[in-house]
Design a protein that fits this description.
It is built from six helices and nine strands. Strand 8, helix 2 and strand 9 (about 120-125) form a beta-alpha-beta unit. It has helices at about 55-65, 105-115, 130-140, 145-155, 175-180, 200-205, and strands at about 1-5, 10-20, 25-35, 40-50, 70, 80-85, 90-95, 100-105, 120-125. It has a single domain, classed as Ribosomal Protein S5, domain 2 (2-Layer Sandwich). With about 210 residues, the protein is of the alpha+beta class.
């Protein structure tokens, strides 16, 4: 693994020497498989072939940068369990709890670390060919589903929480001053009896 241009991390997964038989003998060349990522959710891979190893690596790295894909992550791990397939190779990716680390080997580890995945559990089933392993890993990453992608495929509206401000309504509090100022309930008025003239006594009548 090497840091390139302080932006991408390049990992040479495999280098193979290829011989082509010609009339005058054999022509040797080298093929390379390189994984490149920015460590923040984007990764790509490429293959290159040349007569010299550095030239083959450079070609593979340039192809990897051109074909980078986004990697969905949730808290530093993959969002769900998924299988990737390529040829006779199958690769399993499983979410892991924080602190687990990258439990992987070979090309799978190179892809996970270059993408910036911090915790993941992986398993390789079938052929261990480095090229097939990398391709199967990318097949799994390409098919990862995010919540937004699932809602879009189901035809649902995206989740856009809106902040609703509610004005609290306070109940009026009656104070002692208000109670004193409030008019008191008056008692029902009693009708006054009309004044009755007093009748004169017998003595007053005789006089």
């Amino acid at each position: 693994m090497r840091q390139q241009e302080s932006e991408f991390v390049e990992t040479v997964v495999h280098i193979n020497r290829v011989a082509k038989v010609v009339k005058g003998g054999k022509n040797f060349s080298f093929s390379a498989v390189v994984v490149t990522g920015d460590g923040s959710g984007r990764v790509g891979f490429g293959t290159g072939k040349a007569r010299e190893v550095p030239a083959a690596i450079q070609k593979a790295a340039e192809q990897a940068k051109r074909e980078m894909i986004p990697v969905p992550m949730v808290d530093g791990t993959v969002p769900h369990k998924i299988w990737g397939r390529w040829g006779a190779t199958k690769v399993l990716l499983r979410p892991a709890s924080p602190g687990t680390g990258v439990i992987a080997g070979g090309g799978v580890r190179a892809v996970m670390e270059s993408a910036g995945v911090q915790d993941v559990l992986t398993k390789i089933v079938g052929s261990r060919n480095p090229f097939n392993v990398v391709r199967a890993t990318f097949d799994a990453l390409t098919n990862l589903m995010t919540e937004e992608r699932v809602r879009r495929l189901r035809g649902l509206e995206p989740v856009t929480p809106e902040k609703v401000e509610e004005t609290p309504v306070e109940a009026p509090v009656e104070t002692a001053t208000d109670a004193e100022a409030a008019p008191e309930a008056s008692a029902p008025a009693v009708a006054e009896k009309p004044a009755v003239a007093e009748e004169p006594t017998a003595e007053e009548a005789e006089g």
